[in-house]
Amino acid sequence: MKIKTFVEDLKTKSAAELNEELVAAKKELFNLRFQNATNQLDNTSRIKEVRRNIARIQTAITENAGK
After folding, report:
1. Is residue 54 a contact partner of residue 25, using CB atoms and an 8 Å limit?
2. What Rg, from alpha-carbon coordinates, does the chain have?
3. 9 Cβ partners below 8 Å, 6+ apart?
4. Are 31 and 43 in contact (CB under 8 A)?
5. 36/60 Cα distance (integer angstroms)
6. Which letter does DSSP use for residue 67 in this model?
7. Distance CA 15, CA 23 (A)
């Protein structure tokens, strides 16, 4: 259910907001990878979740560009 609302939220955002969201997600992914490498990460499934969110954001950016 969370994913559906996340995607619908992305569809309502402007290109600039989507780019900001993408940058934030990439920073989070970097931090998660860093924590994982130093054995400080408890929830390793978060990496997969963030990677998929990045793909969702990129898809929304592509769909907006086509409009």
Report:
1. yes
2. 13
3. none
4. no
5. 28
6. -
7. 12
Q: Look-up: residue for tokens 């619908």?
A: 8
DSSP string, 13-44: S-HHHHHHHHHHHHHHHHHHHHHHHTT--S-T
Model pLDDT for residues 50-67, shown as the tens digit of each residue: 999 999 999 999 999 887
Helix axes 45-66, 15-37, angle to 10 degrees: 160
* Structure token digits, residue 38: 């130093």
> For tokens 């940058």, what's the residue?
23
Whether the model pTM is above 0.85: yes
Contact 60, 19 (CB under 8 A): no
